[in-house]
Design a protein that fits this description.
The chain is of the alpha+beta class and about 450 residues long. The protein folds into 3 domains: about 1-70 and about 155-325, BirA Bifunctional Protein, domain 2 (2-Layer Sandwich), CATH 3.30.930.10; about 90-100 and about 100-135, no CATH class; about 335-460, 3-Layer(aba) Sandwich (Rossmann fold). The chain is about 30% helix and about 30% strand. The protein has 14 helices and 27 strands. The strands form 9 sheets. Strands 3-13-14-20-17-16-15 form a 7-stranded mixed sheet. Strand 26 and strand 27 form a beta hairpin. Helix 2 (about 35-55) packs across helix 9 (about 320-330). The protein is globular, with a radius of gyration of 26 Å. The protein binds glycyl-adenosine-5'-phosphate. Glycyl-adenosine-5'-phosphate binds next to strand 14, strand 17, strand 20 and helix 9.
């Protein structure tokens, strides 16, 4: 299973989904850059989410707030005091580890350092009894002087901007309960143990909704959002068998939560969190009202009653969405099935194993590839005209390098649902071949009907 992770990391680099960050300088540990295909994949996830939860719903509006916020936000939200992990430091190599992430069988007061360095394992002694709380917020200074009065924090969650702007939304949109505020964007955490590719990084993206409700209805809306998150996962192509819904017990939840369900996924490196759903009560609005002195109460227009709404918060990690989408899409096929290949010529360069990313069609970074069979100018001209027309409607690639078989393999590996091939017959009959990624079936389509044929196939 670990092997699958290596295959995904290698495919991601080889095909331009995700590169190690700052690579020409030896990298920056656990930072990753999205390449040409990765940015398309990630944008598809963010746009589909926005369409589903903001544009298609009358009860949710979006915002896009600044990353750096007044430090008082983090005092009121409890992050300055509570947003920390227990940390132990190795006396020998001085590296730090999360105390709660160390293998439980080792917890006997004499735990060996798990650090692996160039010259081999460290093996120094970690004293668990001396664990310290380590705040995970990343700090910087605003302005030219680096003193305590200029400290600001990169937001560790996008959520607080929705609470801080709650009053602005009430004043401008006059929404009625229940309603939500949604946001997508970067969050930063000085994680002690980042790793597993883009699973845990120090800079990542979230998509969050703060859904404001009357307190008495919290259970109903908690179930509503659990259902919405399940439907989203199905749409993303994630197998139900690999998902686990874990109710987090008292004492283990985040400081603000009255109920949390972690949606966990069976990654190749173990079952871990993918998304979360929390009932935050009125914790945030109450604390911001107290700390800012601003009235954050909602007025019920029928009863004139003023009160603080409660909040259900569904939260999605963008990078973890990309990771599970890639893990789920990855397929290695020994040979195309006889049924699928019946009557079709063997593709040139066809190898025994084909790697194919079976992304849902809406998610595929490239929807259509246009390939002339060879570099002959008369074929290139027709193919370039087709590319120009189709690229107005679909994300397309034009490719005339290498053999046709190798070009099909590349499109399979990047998950392109449809390939248009222009051959010599096309010059005579004004038709091209449309090849389906999953069945490898090839059908002739008239060039003039191509856009609608592609539309139909992408919808199916
Ligand atoms: N506002 C609530 C909140 O931030 P969280 O469970 O700490 O809750 C929400 O984070 C989601 O953000 C997680 O479910 C995960 O998908 C993603 N996430 C959290 N920390 C991350 C990290 N270090 N790297 C990548 N994604 C992360």
């Amino acid at each position: 299973m670990e092997d699958l992770m290596q295959k995904i990391v290698s495919l991601a680099k080889r095909r331009g989904f995700i590169f190690p960050g700052s690579e020409i300088y030896g990298g920056l540990a656990n930072s990753w850059d999205y390449g040409p295909l990765g940015v398309e994949l990630k944008n598809n996830i963010k746009q589909e989410w926005w369409k589903r939860f903001v544009h298609s719903r009358a009860d949710i509006v979006g915002i896009d707030a600044a990353l750096l916020m007044n430090p008082e936000v983090w005092g009121a939200s409890g992050h300055l005091k509570n947003f920390s992990d227990p940390l132990v430091e190795c006396k020998k190599c001085h590296n730090r580890f999360r105390a709660d992430a160390l293998d439980e069988s080792q917890v006997d007061g004499r735990v060996k350092c798990p650090g692996i360095f160039k010259n081999g394992p460290c093996g120094g002694e970690l004293k668990l009894s001396e664990s310290k709380q380590f705040n995970l917020m990343l700090k910087t200074f605003l302005g030219p002087t680096e003193d305590a009065s200029n400290i600001v924090y990169f937001r560790p969650e996008t959520a607080q901007a929705m609470f801080v702007n709650f009053k602005n939304i009430l004043d401008t949109n006059h929404p009625k309960l229940p309603f939500g505020i949604a946001q997508q964007g970067k969050a930063f955490r000085n994680e002690i143990t980042p790793g597993n590719f883009i699973f845990r990084t120090r800079e990542f993206e979230q998509m969050e909704i703060e859904y404001f409700i009357p307190e008495a209805q919290w259970e109903k809306y908690f179930e509503h959002w659990l259902g919405q998150m399940k439907q989203w996962l199905k749409h993303l192509g994630v197998s139900d068998k690999k998902l686990h819904y874990v109710d987090i017990p008292d004492g283990e939840r985040a400081h603000y939560s009255k109920r949390t369900v972690d949606i966990e996924y069976e990654y190749p490196f173990g079952q871990k969190e993918l998304y979360g759903l929390a009932y935050r009560g009125d914790f945030d609005l109450k604390n911001h009202m107290e700390a800012s002195g601003q009235d954050m109460r909602y007025t019920d227009t029928e009863t004139n009653e003023k009160f603080l709404p409660h909040v259900i918060e569904p939260t999605w990690g963008v990078d973890r969405s990309v990771l599970v989408a890639m893990l789920e899409a990855y397929h290695e096929e020994q040979a195309p099935t006889a049924a699928a290949r019946k009557g079709e010529p063997k593709e040139e360069g066809e190898s025994a194993t084909r790697v194919v990313m079976k992304f849902p069609k809406w998610l595929a970074p490239v929807k259509v590839a246009v390939l002339p069979l060879s570099k002959k100018p008369e074929l290139s001209k027709v193919a370039k005209d087709i590319f120009e027309t189709l690229s107005k409607e679909f994300v397309c690639e034009y490719d005339e390098t290498q053999s046709i078989g190798k070009r099909y393999r590349r499109q399979d590996e990047i998950g392109t649902p449809l390939v248009v091939t222009v051959d010599f017959e096309s010059l005579e009959d004004k038709k091209v071949t449309l090849r389906d990624r999953d069945t490898m079936k090839q059908e002739r389509s008239k060039i003039k009907d191509l856009a609608s044929a592609i539309h139909d196939r992408l919808q199916s």
